[in-house]
């Protein structure tokens, strides 16, 4: 299967469209998403949500990605996109349940997955987590048509809230679906199940080395 033959989804998803996706689905993304890599940004987002205030870029029922963006910044308007680069979502585990529930996100994404508390929030509101391939900045950047808006300019560019227009972004994998299934939890379960066998194998190798 080539990238051009993959199913394409338009963001923002509806909760029903999000719930129709299954762990392991591979898709391309079109439409609008907001992205940042900033810890201060996401703490500020949580403060706004908890205070009942709207964010400067609307994210209600939207898509929010853990991804840095570099672009021309002339005349206080976003210009030509240089590149995008995803970051590790688990850095924000303690903030994401509030954002997922408070903004009723229908999609989020980045690298490395999210905690069980976030998975529970995603199941509650109908939200999926897209896994982006790390080290594939050049490929992912080809799927970004433009940065259409940004907010919180007091922060450095990659920490701002940046709204992206996507056109064939990906491929991305549904790594956590809206029914509570997580590739990361399955991998952890498999690792835990195999651990006793691995430890027995290591001890056996140590004993053999001691008798040589």
Quick tags:
212 residues; alpha/beta; single chain; globular; 5-stranded mixed barrel
At a glance:
This protein is α/β, with parallel strands linked by helices.
Q: Can you describe this structure?
A:
By secondary structure, this protein is an alpha/beta fold. It is built from 6 helices and 8 strands; from the N terminus they run E-H-E-H-E-E-H-E-H-E-H-E-E-H. Strands 2-3-5-6-8 form a 5-stranded mixed β-barrel. A hairpin with a 2-residue loop joins strand 3 (63-74) and strand 4. The termini are far apart.
Number of strand segments:
8
Q: Strand arrangement, largest sheet?
A: 2-3-5-6-8
What separation lies between the terminal Cα atoms? Answer: 51 Å
SS field, number of helical segments: 6
The class by helix and strand makeup works out as: alpha/beta
How much is the average pLDDT? 91
Order of helices and strands: EHEHEEHEHEHEEH
Roughly how much helix do the residues carry, as a percent range?
25-40%
Radius of gyration: 19 Å
Low-confidence stretches: none
Proportion of beta-strand residues: 25-35%
The largest sheet, given as strand count, sense and whether it forms a barrel, is: 5 strands, mixed, barrel
Query: What gross morphology would you assign?
Result: globular
What kind of assembly state do the chains in view correspond to?
single chain
């Amino acid at each position: 299967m080539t990238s051009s033959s993959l199913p394409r989804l338009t963001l923002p998803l509806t909760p029903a469209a999000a719930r129709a996706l299954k762990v392991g689905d591979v898709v391309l993304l079109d439409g609008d998403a907001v992205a940042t890599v900033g810890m201060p940004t996401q703490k500020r987002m949580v403060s706004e949500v908890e205070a009942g205030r709207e964010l400067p870029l609307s994210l209600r029922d939207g898509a929010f990605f853990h991804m840095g963006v570099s672009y021309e910044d002339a005349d206080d308007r976003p210009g030509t996109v240089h590149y995008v680069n995803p970051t590790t979502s688990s850095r924000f585990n303690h903030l994401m349940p509030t954002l997922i529930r408070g903004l009723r996100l229908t999609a989020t994404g980045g690298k490395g997955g999210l905690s069980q508390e976030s998975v529970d929030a995603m199941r509650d509101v109908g939200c999926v987590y897209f896994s982006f391939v790390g080290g594939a900045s050049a490929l992912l950047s080809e799927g970004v048509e433009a940065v259409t808006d940004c907010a919180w300019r007091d922060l450095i560019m990659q920490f701002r809230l940046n709204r992206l227009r996507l056109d064939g972004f990906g491929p991305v994998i549904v790594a956590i679906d809206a029914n509570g299934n997580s590739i990361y939890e399955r991998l952890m379960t498999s690792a835990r199940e195999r651990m006793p066998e691995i430890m027995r194998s290591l001890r056996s190798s140590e004993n053999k080395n001691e008798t040589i």
